[in-house]
Amino acid sequence: MSAEDLPKRVLPKPEVLRRNVVEQLSRLPDEGVAVLHDLAQELELRAAWAEFSEGMAQDWAAGKYENLDEALIKARAAIRDSRE
């Protein structure tokens, strides 16, 4: 089952949700706060990866990486030459 298959949830306004989360955080033990911190970081990472992947897909479709193999070969050769 994908996210599209799930029924739409009716949520309060973001300000209300944020206030509720802050209140709930204040009642959690430290271990719970640590778990939520890890979850928040995971969500941020997933969002960043999705954004990056979308941008890369658009760039590939636009042909921006047609000469990527050649550019990598030249860059590796330049690095090798600079070490000598």
Offer a concise description of the structure.
The chain is an all-alpha fold and 84 residues long. 74% of the residues lie in helices and 0% in strands.
Features:
84 residues; mainly alpha; 74% helix; elongated
Structure in words:
- The chain is mainly α and 84 residues long.
- It has one domain (11-83).
- Helix content is 74%, strand content 0%.
- It has three helices and no strands.
- The chain has helices at 14-27, 30-61, 68-83.
- The radius of gyration is 23 Å and the shape is elongated.
- The model has no long low-confidence stretch (mean pLDDT 92).
List the helices and strands and how they pair.
Layout (H helix, E strand, L loop, with lengths): L13 H14 L2 H32 L6 H16 L1
Instruction: Sum up the overall morphology in one term.
Output: elongated
Radius of gyration: 23 Å
Distance between the termini: 56 Å
Total discrete domains: 1
Number of helices: 3
Order of helices and strands: HHH
Task: Estimate what percentage of residues fall within beta strands.
Answer: under 5%
Derived from helix and strand composition plus strand pairing, the structural class reads mainly alpha
Mean pLDDT level? 92
Uncertain spans, ≥5 residues at pLDDT below 50?
A: none
Helix content: over 70%
Largest sheet: none
- DSSP, total strands: 0
